[in-house]
Fold this protein.
Amino acid sequence: MSSDDLPDQGKIRPAPESFLDSDLIESISRHGVDHRRRGLLQSAFGAAVAAMSGAVVASDQDILTLPEWSRTLGKPVAANPYGQPSIYEQNIIRRQSPGLTQTDQASVAFTPLQNMFGMITPSGLHFERHHQGWVDIDPRRHRLMINGLVEKPIVFTMEELMRMPSVSRLHFLECGANTALEWGNSAVPTVQYTHGMLSGSEWTGVPLSLLLERAGYDKGAKYLLAEGADGSSMTRTINMENALDDAIVAYGQNGEMLRPEQGYPLRLVVPGVQGVSWVKWLRRLEVGDMPYATKDEASHYVDLMPDGQQRQYTAIQEAKSVITAPSGGQKLQNRGYYNITGLAWSGRGTVTKVEVSVDGGRNWREARLDGPVLPKMLTRFHADWVWQGETALLQSRVHDSTGYIQPQRADLVAVRGTRSIYHNNAIQTWRVKSDGEVDNVQLG
Amino acid sequence: MSSDDLPDQGKIRPAPESFLDSDLIESISRHGVDHRRRGLLQSAFGAAVAAMSGAVVASDQDILTLPEWSRTLGKPVAANPYGQPSIYEQNIIRRQSPGLTQTDQASVAFTPLQNMFGMITPSGLHFERHHQGWVDIDPRRHRLMINGLVEKPIVFTMEELMRMPSVSRLHFLECGANTALEWGNSAVPTVQYTHGMLSGSEWTGVPLSLLLERAGYDKGAKYLLAEGADGSSMTRTINMENALDDAIVAYGQNGEMLRPEQGYPLRLVVPGVQGVSWVKWLRRLEVGDMPYATKDEASHYVDLMPDGQQRQYTAIQEAKSVITAPSGGQKLQNRGYYNITGLAWSGRGTVTKVEVSVDGGRNWREARLDGPVLPKMLTRFHADWVWQGETALLQSRVHDSTGYIQPQRADLVAVRGTRSIYHNNAIQTWRVKSDGEVDNVQLG
């Protein structure tokens, strides 16, 4: 990947050379002095400017350069009936990693984590991972069948599903191959490419347990096959335990219908489990009594261990965290305070603590968490940092409600080797160099 | 408003005439019988179909009509670097209410609540209320000044603000004029137009208290003036109590930068307070010792009482709820089970209970709430209902953590009259007629 491929990382820019921008300064002379009443408020702006250290007294020229948006009639409501981001944010997009896969339909487009806030991923920036491209399904023609070990096979229309009792819950979604290239010494340059197969959304749909009950599933059945309607007919085995716990047959994401790239009109949501099992364009659920060993869980999505054996059905996404800013490809443009921020999550429960280190793991301090901290959902963390120009090694590590602590890369590699593609939840290290540039390094 | 102006309300459609859709049925004859292994899975679909009551045995013609999305290569990843809703959802948009205002720049576009799920409003569907249109501000040229009763007036660039400690929190935003037309006998036809100046978002930014501390605000000061950078120079008085409690100078919404229509790059977030105080395109905060009585809080956004006096500075949005489906303009197309669903919120705290009535308030039962239930945020509720074809009067009422209960319209009108525009939090009634059509009625 060349530097030309790098997105605008929303660089952390310096303070401007002059503290004041004459664009916003208005003349004192044109207004009165009472700053308590509207209509004279411009005067307060000017008076305050005059009172400031190093202040610039506005000239008529400054008035003429009052920003156009403060002088003109704006755009009407519903100019965009479905709104879009600002024209100044056009670089904040999901991006395909060049050369990662042989075809663009069986590929990945990553979420720009370095530019994002909070725990919600806007659906327009939700990562994509398709196996035969994404499709535009007509919801009037889409059906969901439940068959196999059931009393009565049943087929649902979308209208039938959307009339049933529904739930909305916030959960993270992470591809099992997220951070895959870090198994090697790839030094993928940015957090968009190292961790960008990750999202947090509010999912809405019918509890899977309710649909299984309605079909009269065999209480001895231990597995479920989920099948998608795209050309790849993605199929995955789901543990009945997960299915009956908190899985959702979802049609809604972040308040509206699923996006086509996310499985419109129907997707399986299996909280805590890797993304490939959240089958998109869901058309069939089959109840069974043994794992199905489909192509997507036998030849793919298995973890190659150092001894040549494979871990199969490694479904749960273990606890993991990453600093999203400052992160690789960004540049600190001057010394001083920075808010180190990132995301933490666990497929086994709730984040209980996040720690941040600026010296490669020698010293840790507890980060501040934005609430609510929810099970199997992203948690945003923050840590204060004053950068004095030294080389720094930024790391985060999460603790979850099972007592598990995110491992250092060396400890994970000691057990799992480096031959796998999947389930890399090691601590990520970002190096801040003395010139402020941030890059991706692997310690040990 | 004529019926031609009504949006597609996402009608609650009947079950299809045939239980099965031949589009999805594949031939049995072409495949084996082992339903446990991928590659032979189509056979299971066919076998299940054959086993079903009233099943249709698939013909070769059915195979030929397997949906195109299951037979073709889909679209590549990042085909839309910033994703969009499905082409089948093009009617789910925000809509201006025709004739509501004299110019489209000082108007409203409403959120399609009848089609939405959960508590998050996708930013593309967030309602718009502008006073002189919306503007595209260049964030490099935008500044925030804090002046007035402060030790040192200060001007921030966006870069400076975005380096500071930040918080992300989920809060509702409701225009004080939401449900305004219900003060009269308007019978606005749909929930999009009755309650669609409402949203729930995750907001990210700098705590206002931190910025005030940094400017050295006068601890005796009781008020703050917030001023926008658009042509209307929207100005509002904010109580210092609200400012220091949970207000945020926000640049992020739902994980990304604010949208231009929502104040990009900077907006004041004042949880629980009416939307007009969440000043968009925020450029200045002035600390003061008395309310400012600006045009936007003296001649507008005041509540005209029956005796001709005005309630001023009625900032807090009282507890309120509304059923979003079934709702006005929808049609129940057959009898049977429906999931009554809606939203509840309180500007004074947390929703503690929502009750639903199907007989105009004679009998109530408690609704199920989707968690997490958060302070000053929307809460999604659900209630089971089996419709037998009778005329029904659907209502919801919320209780909040202060003990307040949402009033019936007659009780609210008895105190406040019908001359106001603002702060109508009365219980909403939707009538389901015997033909299944739903309309807006006012009781008593």
Summary: Residues 104 and 294 of chain A are 23 Å apart (CA to CA). Residues 96-311 of chain A form a domain with the Sulfite Oxidase; Chain A, domain 2 fold (CATH 3.90.420.10). Chain A touches chain B through 145 residues (CB under 8 Å). Chain A has three domains: 22-70, 96-311, 320-441.
